[in-house]
Write a structure and sequence with these properties.
Length: 320
């Protein structure tokens, strides 16, 4: 039986940005970055009001179809509660469509807010991080960004699929496979630093995914497996190995023609000994190192129209 939240309950969620892939770890490696969106939710007697400030304020729907609202409602539903009305304020700082996990952050923040409201009603309804990763990844279709925003630090994520038989015993079609999304957090090396170079132009994840081939060469697959394994070591214990550990053959070369400025800067940074990758689907460049970002490269990037930000590595979503 669904329980209704009383009017006047409130919660605030603070959720970090994320970068996925980190070079070779396509759809599996991610890191939380210290750029935060904030979501305030208050229950009311009826209706929905939503206000959006900052990034995306002029681009996103201010109504029930807003991603944060949908995520809040899913969080409430998963806990078996409902609200007759909601007042939602989104304060967005994470750039949209730049490869910094803005949609995953919106989903994680909304889910965390909805689940936190349920837990305020009854602590027994509290949602753990495994459940949050599952719920958020169902929105996204893959867990790398969502898991980073939930867990913080560096994450390794994967998907498990239960494949039923093609037909049931009575000859009817079997249900669709069930996807279970999982992730573990790794503590990054204490000297690890992240810098992001953010272009003005945006990128569509759907478009850049469409550039990827269905079949890859065995040698390229083996290359990426070795580099993804090495990345775990480099990110947590041996940052001196970051440059070889962030090399990739499965997605960045294929996306390069659609991201000329991004690709040029990745080549420039790697030639300077800095481990640089496409952040998610781009166009942001993620640079990982243990040293201060060189001033001359910073000035060149700014001259190229890139915003240079050193966000720091972040903890996961927080609610109050």
């Amino acid at each position: 039986m669904t329980r209704t939240l009383p009017a006047g309950m409130s919660v605030t969620a603070r959720v970090p940005a994320s970068s996925a892939n980190l070079g070779p770890g396509f759809d599996s490696l991610g890191v939380a970055l210290g750029i935060y969106d904030e979501i305030e939710v208050r229950t009311t007697d009826s209706g929905l009001t939503i206000r959006v400030e900052g990034e995306g304020a002029d681009d996103v729907p201010w109504g029930p179809s807003h991603l944060v609202v949908r995520a809040i409602e899913r969080g409430l539903e998963s806990a078996g509660v409902w609200a007759d009305g909601l007042d939602v304020v989104c304060r967005n700082v994470i750039p949209h469509s730049r490869g910094l996990g803005s949609s995953a952050s919106a989903v994680v923040g909304g889910l965390a807010a909805g689940c936190a409201l349920a837990a305020k009603l009854d602590p027994r309804l509290a949602t753990d991080t495994d459940q949050l990763v599952q719920l958020a990844s169902e929105f996204e279709g893959h867990p790398d960004n969502a898991a980073a925003s939930v867990l913080g630090g560096v994450v390794v994520s994967w998907t498990e699929t239960d494949r039923p038989a093609d037909t049931g015993a009575d000859g009817t079609a079997a249900p669709a496979p069930t996807r279970v999304y999982r992730a573990v957090r790794l503590d990054p090396h204490p000297a690890l630093r992240a810098v992001v170079l953010i272009p003005e132009e945006r990128s569509s994840t759907a478009h850049t995914r469409g550039l990827l081939p269905e079949v890859v060469a065995h040698g390229d697959a083996a290359f990426n497996v070795s580099r993804a394994a090495l990345a775990v070591v480099a990110l947590t214990q041996r940052p001196d190995l970051l440059l070889p550990a962030t090399a990739d053959r499965l997605h960045q070369p294929q996306r390069a023609p659609a991201l000329p400025l991004t690709t040029a800067w990745i080549h420039r940074l790697r030639a300077a000994g800095i481990a640089a990758t496409v952040s998610g689907a781009g166009p942001t460049v993620l640079a990982l190192s243990t040293s201060e970002f060189p001033r001359e490269l910073r000035e060149l990037a700014i001259a190229d129209g890139l915003r240079v930000v050193e966000p720091g590595l972040a903890e996961g979503v927080w609610t109050d």
